[in-house]
Specification:
Elements (H helix, E strand, L loop, with lengths): L2 H11 L6 H18 L28 H14 L3 H25 L5
Length: 112
């Protein structure tokens, strides 16, 4: 999924007043976390996503790429102070993140 697709999908699923620039910052944060916590601990490391072009693909591919939309939705709820919805969205995100981490760990040799 591309950066643009994640932002568009988020806006389709949840009407919000946050700018694309803010959503881009949140995406950078989660992509950096994925890169540092998962990718850099394995051989055959993919490079960090270049956020200068919103048509660039993110690290997590289908069927794991929904984690990005889930994260943006959670951040929207966090910053609109919708605590219960934020907590529920984070449960979904954390499950999707863990599923991606498990997949990546199964399919890439760890660094020794």
């Amino acid at each position: 999924m591309t950066i643009r697709e994640v932002i568009s999908q988020t806006d389709e699923l949840l009407v919000n007043a946050f700018s694309d620039e803010q959503k881009l910052e949140w995406l950078k944060n989660i992509e950096n976390k994925i890169h540092q916590e998962i990718v850099l601990k394995h051989e055959n490391q993919v490079p960090m996503t270049d956020f200068e072009n919103d048509n660039n693909e993110l690290i997590a591919k289908t069927p794991y790429d929904n984690l990005y939309t889930s994260y943006l939705i959670a951040m929207i709820f966090k910053y609109t102070q919708e605590t219960q919805r934020f907590n529920n969205a984070m449960i979904v995100f954390n499950q999707e993140y863990q599923e991606f981490a498990n997949y990546y760990n199964r399919n890439n040799m760890p660094l020794m």
